[in-house]
Amino acid sequence: MSKIIKGLALSAIASSVVMAGAYKIPEQSLNSMALSAAYVAHTMGADTAYANPANMAFMDDKQYVEGAITLARLPSNVFSLGSLSGESEVENIVIPNAHYVSNPIGDFRWGVSMTAPGGLTKRWETPYQKLSAEEFTLKIIELNPSISYKIADNFGIGGGLSIIYSEGVVKSNGDAFSAMIGDPSVNIARDMEGDTVEFGYNLAVTYKPTNDINMAATYRSNVDLDQEGTALLSAGGVPVYNGDATVSVPLPAALNLAVSKTWNDTFTLEFNYERTYWSSYETLDFEYGGANIGPLTPVFDDPIAKDWQDTNTFRIGATMVMDKITMMMAFAIDETPVPVENVSFELPDSDAKIFSMGFRYQQTENLSWGAAFLYDSKESLTIAPGTSVNPSPSFAAGFSEGGAFLTTLGIAYEF
């Protein structure tokens, strides 16, 4: 039992930082949302600065600016295991983004994007789940300046710098059995917060073998998120530690390979393959400034194995231009990096199927606006006895429902 409590207590701390990976949001514009991020080879607007900066080299001789607001609605996750069953709270999260691409300077061009590429809130009010995830909040903001260079009329390269700010809050409060603490019913509580600024980079290349085919590759580097903040830990209502706390976890590297084909300048089909290198997340080790927290060490401080896996995502998107209206739709298959034996209440992740659609309306020669909708459908999970969040020696537990609904409104201007 103490091993299970230790896993619950520690995994929430780390996952509050890395949930941007397992729940990352690659759709960072109106078009990208409508196309389930099958928007790397064939990009069209200011969001090119983020999706594929190499494509800035082929844009028209003018400036581009756009912005969007996404409302992400996260339905309840349902955990089923007899008297330990519970449902998480419904969450609504606002996700903004903004992009700009400059006029060309010879064969060079620059752009900049401000995005929120990940983060969410997960809360449980039921007793067993509150032990690890009473409140679980992560905010991430990324500033991504980028440049492109046109090597030839059909070949461009690009890259940029990622400046990432993140902050998180983790709270838990519940009664737990732990022989190591010496009481069959001890209240274990924590109140943690921290933040960090980190740096990474991204690279991109686009090749156009013909006027109607684009082939592209993009890469975003691994970023170690070294969170620094404070932690208040207590047992039985007695403070055990109140001071500095740190934890380091990877925001993994990701590679995208994409190809698009356009027919008659009106219909485009794009296929995108993404590989995310989550295997860099092997263990979790939370530090308390060198302090000895005594009998709570096995609960809050011992390193635990995470053993996440590299993942594959497959996306296909279609775009149709009809006079002043551009219609978009897409489908994607997204793997989870979390082994089922390591699933936890703050991160009840599973494989997903993604459906999306949207439109853009050309109001004037310079101004366009539109909307998009995306549905992320998570598969149900069965948790074997004695693993992860399931302390039962003989009954399987399960997670169901969850997923996400994302609605985006966006506007763009060219001048």
What does this structure look like?
- The chain is mainly beta.
- The chain has one domain: Porin, CATH 2.40.160.
- It has 5 helices and 23 strands.
- A 14-stranded antiparallel beta barrel has the order 1-4-5-7-8-9-10-13-14-17-18-19-20-23. It has a 4-stranded antiparallel β-sheet with strand order 3-2-22-21, with helices on one face. Strands 15-16 form a two-stranded antiparallel ribbon.
- The N terminus is likely disordered.
Short structural summary:
By secondary structure, the chain is mostly beta strands. The protein has 5 helices and 23 strands.
Give the full name of the CATH homologous superfamily: Outer membrane protein transport protein (OMPP1/FadL/TodX)
pLDDT averaged over residues: 87
The total strand number stands at 23
- Our count of helices gives 5
The rounded Rg comes to 23 Å
The assigned CATH architecture is Beta Barrel
Number of domains: 1
CATH topology: Porin
Instruction: Based on Cα principal axes, name the global outline.
Output: elongated
Strand content bin: over 45%
Spell the H/E element sequence. HHHEEEEEEHEEEEEEEEEHEEEEEEEE
- Helix percentage range: under 10%
Main beta-sheet strand count, sense and barrel state: 14 strands, antiparallel, barrel
Instruction: Order the strands across the largest sheet as they lie in space.
Output: 1-4-5-7-8-9-10-13-14-17-18-19-20-23
Helix-strand makeup class: mainly beta
How far is the N terminus from the C terminus?
63 Å
CATH class assignment: Mainly Beta
Low-confidence stretches: 1-21, 178-182
